[in-house]
Amino acid sequence: MSGPVMIGHLLLEKLARQVQTRVPETDLIMQAQDQVVAFMEGGRDEGILAYIYLFHAVMSLPVIRPGDTVIDLACGPANQLAQIARFHPDTRFIGVDASPSMLALARGTLAANRLDNVTLQQGDVTQLTGFADQSADAVICTMSLHHLPDTAALAATMREIGRVLKPGGGVYLADFGRLKRAATQRFFAYDRQELQSDQFTADFLASMRAAFSTAEFTTALAEIGSPVHYHQTALAPFMIIGRSAARHPIGADLAAQVKASYAALSAGHRRNFDNFTRWFKAGGLELPCNVK
After folding, report:
1. Options 3.75.10.10, 3.40.50.150, 3.40.800.20, 3.40.50.720; CATH of 3-282
2. I need a labelling partner for 53 at 20 to 30 A (CA). Which of 60, 72, 164, 175 fits?
3. Rounded mean pLDDT, 55-67
4. What is the pTM for the complete model shown?
């Protein structure tokens, strides 16, 4: 990202008093082929989102244990889910998504990664009718809650998380936060325009406009019924995270795998990962293990 310009936008965010009105996405389920392809390509190992996927995979480590059953809400093409599942070969993952197109891509992702610890299920995250009460050890959802139509749907999703989660279960939820200034939203959407497709840029901006506010997100977290701690990037909630308390320590083998995954990133992605890590650390959230 363009560091000095970004800092300028973040300082203006800190000082701004106005509040942007949320603009829900036109298509709540991503079905258009150009949108689906743009999202899928951005999440490939060499794609523009590679460092973000590793970041969330690392941040979610403390809430997932070997032997768990973990539900990934709105898993999309499963690029993020595949990254997380590789770190936890002894854990069972269930990816849930409402879009048949996304699930078709997800099946290809899982096959390409030769993952046999992940199954997929079509479903509505606001009504997890295919899951019994207290049937999951952990629930995760990354960069997808902004697709929900309104705060009522967000609250319903959180209540469903609380219903299917076992006592003491793990939670990791990450998404964009709604920024105060339209100019800041456009900066983040267009900052790396030369590296992304026009469709990706348009979808990025739409996602930022559809993001829930800090107050809306934290209010909804309370619906889970168990403690989930809120975190955000420093100065402004470009990204927000809800994470439960750690459920187990990160062993040496897993830590070594994390370091190998970080080393496999391109130099540019490692730089972006480091910058993003510092941004969250300045907001009070540190990585649960070293990546270097």
Report:
1. 3.40.50.150
2. 164
3. 98
4. 0.93
